UniProtKB/TrEMBL annotation:
It comes from Actinomadura rubrisoli. InterPro entries: Aromatic_CoA_ox/epox, Ferritin-like, Ferritin-like_SF, PaaA, PaaA_PaaC. Residues 319-338 have a biased composition (Basic and acidic residues). One of its GO terms (cellular component) is cytosol. Pfam families: PaaA_PaaC. SUPFAM superfamilies: Ferritin-like. NCBIfam families: PA_CoA_Oxy1. The lineage of its organism: Bacteria, Bacillati, Actinomycetota, Actinomycetes, Streptosporangiales. One of its GO terms (molecular function) is phenylacetyl-CoA 1,2-epoxidase activity. GO terms for biological process: phenylacetate catabolic process. This is 1,2-phenylacetyl-CoA epoxidase subunit A. Residues 313-338 are annotated as: Disordered.
Length: 338
């Protein structure tokens, strides 16, 4: 099923005809669908991007998930539970989208837990107080929205459609985070300090979520040409900064960057230099929580082995039963004819 359902007719390079159809589809801003022919490189780039995104959603459940049992009220617990559950759903849509390209889910999970595929570096930072839950919603989900809204127009159909629903939910996440921070800023001096401390810790890693600067980004040009990506890393980062500065002012927190100021000439905010060595270090596995995140994910996968075995046994039993029913149906008219 996999070979024929994933548009490999024409091979990796394809005939001139299928190549032209692919280019024409992209040019007209239409979607590439699972059965369409696509260049091997397009397929592998999409699988890598969607898998990395799916892994980020699933690993991203951990930093906030740690606070579900410690939420300060039933209301906050219910909100956080719903948010973390949404992230699991995002992971599921995305793994399903990767499967339409012929990727195997077990293989993708194997690549995640063995470190061969990445997830967003932001989830390798610890959540030290409940204010981190609010700041993650505000800044991390906010940055995710900036990154992901343009992906609703990604040239790969199943990914673009998954992103529409995901973005709606991310927008709820951002609002719940901001609402939580407003409540804390309305509280005691200690609560306000807790918010400022969380903002100080999450601001720079949030800016790093957009990836390396355009000059160092290896995949940008081809991904833009294929309309997998609609804006460069630096454009999206700038959009996020411009969007966030007035929100910080309304909240009454200071963003930890002495160089942050409005540039009337550019019509954008200027901001200070990002420590790219930190991003490289965290991506290559040396962030504060990398080992812990992967260990938790691996343990969850191993603990779930019996569920997968039971589900597979049930599915094959069902299939046998259905086959038996079909055989009976085929046999019956024969017997009647005799
Ligand atoms: Fe998400
Ligand atoms: Fe989210």
């Amino acid at each position: 099923m996999r070979g024929e359902a994933t548009g490999t007719a024409g091979g990796e390079t394809g005939t001139a005809e299928v190549q032209a159809l692919f280019e024409w589809t992209i040019e007209r801003d239409q979607r590439i669908e699972p059965r369409d022919w696509m260049p091997g490189k397009y397929r592998s780039t999409m699988i890598r991007q969607i898998a990395q995104h799916a892994h980020s959603e699933i690993i991203g459940m951990q930093p906030e998930g740690e606070w579900i049992t410690r939420a300060p009220s039933l209301r906050r617990k219910a909100i956080l539970l719903a948010k973390v559950q949404d992230e699991a759903g995002h992971g599921l849509y995305l793994y399903s989208a990767a499967e339409t390209l012929g990727a195997d889910r077990t293989d993708l999970t194997g690549k995640l837990v063995s470190g061969r595929q990445k997830y967003s570096s932001i989830f390798n930072y610890p959540t030290l107080s409940f204010a981190d839950v609010g700041v993650i919603g505000w800044l991390v989900d906010g940055a995710a929205i900036c990154n992901q809204v343009p992906l609703c127009r990604s040239s790969y159909g199943p990914y673009a459609r998954a992103m529409i629903r995901i973005c709606k939910e991310e927008s709820f996440h951002q609002r719940q985070g901001y609402e939580l921070l407003m409540a804390l800023m309305d509280g005691t001096p200690a609560q306000r300090e807790m918010v400022q401390d969380a903002v100080d810790r999450w601001w720079w890693p949030s800016l790093m979520m957009f990836g390396p600067p355009d000059a160092d980004s290896t995949h940008t040009a081809q991904s833009m040409a294929w309309k997998i990506k609609r804006h460069t890393n630096d454009e999206l980062r700038q959009r996020f900064v411009d969007m966030t500065v007035p929100q910080a002012a309304a909240l009454g927190v200071t963003l930890p960057d002495p160089d942050l100021r409005w540039n009337a000439e550019r019509g954008h905010h200027d901001f200070g230099a990002i420590d790219w060595s930190e991003l490289k270090r965290v991506i290559s596995g040396d962030g504060p929580c990398n080992a812990e995140r992967i260990a938790v994910r691996r343990a969850a996968h191993e603990d779930g082995a019996w569920v997968r075995e039971a589900a597979a046994a049930h599915a094959s039993k069902q299939a046998r039963r259905e086959r038996g029913a079909m055989d009976d149906a085929v046999e019956k008219p024969g017997r009647e004819a005799v």
